[in-house]
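Support request, priority: normal
Reporter: lab tech (M.K.)
Component: structure prediction queue

Hi team, I submitted a job for Light-independent protochlorophyllide reductase subunit B from Clostridium luticellarii yesterday, and the status page still shows it as pending. I've pasted the exact input below so you can check whether something in the sequence is tripping the parser. The sequence length should be 471 residues. Please let me know if I need to resubmit or if it's stuck on your end.
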Amino acid sequence: MGLLDKRKPQIREKRLNTLNAYFGDVSQLLNSMEEKEVSQRIRTFSQTSFDEIIYVLQVLNGIEDAGIVIHGPLGCSAVQLYMLSKYNRRKWIVTNLNEKDSILGSGEKLELAIRKLYKSCKPNVIFIVTTPVVAINNDDVLSPIIELENELNIKIVPIFSDGFKSKSSIFGGDVAFHAICKYLLTDKRKEKQSNLLNLISISESKKELDGIKNLLNEIGVKTNIVPRFSTLADIEIASQAAFSISIDKDNGDYFVKSLEEKFNIPFLSNLCPIGIKGTKDWLINIGRAFGLEKNAEVVADKYSDDLREYVNSNKLNGLRVYINLPTSKAFSILKLIKEFGGNLAGITVDHVDSVNEEELIYIQNLNENIKLHVADDQPFEEENILNKLNPDLYIGLSRECALAAKLGVPSIAVDNLDILGFSGVKNLIKAVDKAIINKKFVERLKNENKLFYKKNWYNKSINWYIKQEVK
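Reply from support: The job had stalled in the queue. We restarted it manually and it finished. Here are the results:
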């Protein structure tokens, strides 16, 4: 059965053996992957973590001419306020379901919300994001959609996000891409464009994407960036591309595989274009696919030569670095650290699965006795790790960096730092130098802050609450 045959995608735990709880040896995890017997882990205690609706909204908010209806109680739309700060979009509405609606049905409220959104914003496509309340009640979503599509002459796409079937929040990206590919990309007769590349992006900045686009233009490849900063027209063109590649291969895995299944568009699998070697390999791999390998090598060498001064003067050499980032980005940063002479103290990723097998082998071959920590926002475990390891530098997102800084570890938050491509190397190395030179601030924070948890927690093993699931 194909990826798009069902109403909803298969959960990642079944499709890719995804884990979102693990602490231990990489070799043990690789052995279980090779034997196709990856045992799921659960946490008997867990702090609040992301859910799939956040990932759904992250994908949809990138489509600039889309309207979004969040079909659920008011609280389910709270995350959209966070998205407003990042995307500055106004084309959304919430159905604001209450107890009465959950008993008697919510079709009328959904229909009213769609009409209001269409009248006020005139979007080119409307996405209906269902929430756990709608899933539990098994409300009829399709009937109002079919009726209003004909009346308003607009595409209305249901996104069936349950919020509880998968423990891995990145599954929300699969849910969104499943609907986009199933309901928006329907015309298989369009002629292919031989030099067109689908560049799948979800969270990258405009500046980063412009830089990557310019690099690809230099080697002779035309890019169609979706869904970030895209329109409905850009998404529909995706079926005409010669190849697809995702900047973050974890986030884009479902989309590129769906495009291959439905339109026979091959996809290229690479880590993020981060670091000198990482960006060169990424660029040359694309060039090779389009028959432009020589062009790609010339462009890559030109920009690589400009970075020699950063290689020679960087302060990463010999440092023990701890990384906590989304999976593909974490493994890409790791390779940059090794490229610049740094050492890996430890690593936390939000999930791990068969897509990451090559990177796990890379960590195993480092022979540095690194324990892999898989956790989606579990700071109590990470503080225990950092207390035990005491790294020289921490690279993560803002919320995690605040914790590391309070423990006295110089920290670099990369969520607002452009780190892709050759220019990203300069930005990251400058941030490293700045963090290492200016240690006084984190040292003061450490002196003025007490430990966040009880002392007996720091004496326990990190995986104290991680247990193998028994079926």
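The longest helix spans residues 421-437. The chain has three domains: 52-162, 196-305, 315-468. Let us know if anything else looks off. Ticket resolved.
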